[in-house]
Design brief:
Layout lengths: L4 H10 L4 H17 L3 H4 L7 E3 L2 E3 L3 E3 L10 H5 L5 E7 L12 E4 L4 E4 L8 H10 L5 E6 L10 H12 L5 E5 L14 H22 L5 E5 L5 H13 L4 E4 L19 E4 L3 H15 L5 E4 L5 H10 L3 E4 L1 H6 L2 H9 L1
Parallel strand pairs: 3-4, 3-13, 4-7, 7-8, 8-9, 9-10, 10-12, 12-13
Antiparallel strand pairs: 1-2, 5-6, 6-11
Helix pairs in contact: 6-7, 7-8, 8-9, 9-10, 10-12
Length: about 350
């Protein structure tokens, strides 16, 4: 797949800047396009409704978490034609994340490496943004723990985020799979995962009664480690009351890369993740059966890769790195054929 000529020109301009600077500039341009009502003229939404978690999506193409960590650009992003967007990862307290530089392009491989470290302005800021936005669309909220919170108290952070965003969330994603917060992936281990999710599900039950609203909870899993362990984590989550799975987060693997940037620490996303994520989605579908919703995330660089995810068992897909390299037209192209 080749990006449109206008986006190729814009990408060439954006790629003159350091990646994190370019990302901020791209978001500001999207916001300008929203307020000037330009975005919908170029990126009309495809209406191809699907049911996910008993929620009706306009189409099955979503934005992966990490693109808008604080919820500052909800309206602008929805105006690109997404069926849903996921904002975050948000933590209870603001945190700066890891030292810069922490985002790297690998154009040869259509990939990114990031070690952002859940940099965000805190859940209070996100709630203010949710209250003020004018959105008409489905919003998932991705939650995590602060880097300074010990693992044995991680549930406190997740529950605090749940309590504060529940009223505005269409679904909530529990992020236990980022490679950029020390020790976080240990929460995928069966015993720790069970303790964490039991506490979160208990809070969810209270919140459902409080708001008279049932918000689906999903878990985002890592593509790394033994497949058997990952499948066990997914089964455990579903048995405890989690409503679905997002597969997958970024990978620490560097297999197939041949550029100096591969030496950078952090999570790899993009084309290099496609095969691994596809295999995991297929294995999850076989393990969990046909009723559990699976959102594929990782390696969605073109329509064919998205269709492969669908055929492997994904109910919907999320894009991020594909958006960086191919532009917003990718959303429509996938939605039309999914």
């Amino acid at each position: 797949m080749t990006a449109s000529i206008p986006y190729q020109l814009l990408r060439k301009l954006l790629f003159q800047f350091p990646p994190e600077t370019a990302h901020k500039l791209a978001l500001k341009l999207l916001k300008l396009g929203y307020y000037s009502k330009i975005n919908p003229l170029f990126y009309k939404k495809v209406h191809k409704p699907i049911n996910l978690f008993n929620i009706t999506l306009d189409n099955p193409v979503g934005l992966a978490a990490g693109y808008d960590k604080n919820g500052d650009y909800i309206d602008a992003l929805l105006s690109l034609g997404f069926g849903f967007i996921e904002i975050g990862t948000i933590t209870p307290k603001p945190q700066a994340g890891n030292p810069k530089p922490r985002l790297f392009r690998l154009p040869k491989h259509h990939a990114l490496i990031n070690r952002m470290g859940f940099n965000n302005l805190g859940v209070d800021h996100m709630v203010k943004r949710l209250k003020s936005c004018q959105h008409q669309g489905i919003i998932g909220i991705n939650i995590g723990k602060n880097a300074t919170t010990p693992l044995e108290k991680a549930s406190d952070d997740y529950i605090q985020c749940c309590q504060q965003v529940y009223a505005w969330a269409d679904y909530i994603t529990i992020n236990i799979s980022s490679p950029n917060t020390k020790g976080l992936r240990e929460l995928q281990q069966t015993e720790k995962l069970t303790c964490l999710l039991q506490a979160i599900i208990a809070s969810k039950t209270q919140l459902t009664e409080q708001y008279n609203k049932k918000v689906p909870f999903v878990v985002k899993l890592s593509p790394d480690g033994e497949l058997k362990t990952l499948l066990t984590s997914a089964e455990t989550a579903i048995k405890l009351g989690i409503d679905g799975i997002i597969a997958t987060n970024t990978t620490v693997s560097r297999m197939g890369l041949s550029v100096p940037e591969q030496l950078q620490q952090g999570g790899l996303s993009g084309q290099a993740l496609a095969e691994k994520s596809l295999n995991i989605v297929g294995q999850l579908r076989q393990t969990l059966g046909n009723e559990i919703p699976i959102i594929a995330s990782g390696g969605m660089m073109d329509v064919e890769q998205a269709l492969a995810m669908r055929d492997a068992g994904a109910n919907a897909v999320q894009v991020y790195t594909g958006l960086v390299y191919q532009g917003p037209q990718l959303i429509r192209e996938i939605a039309e054929r999914f």
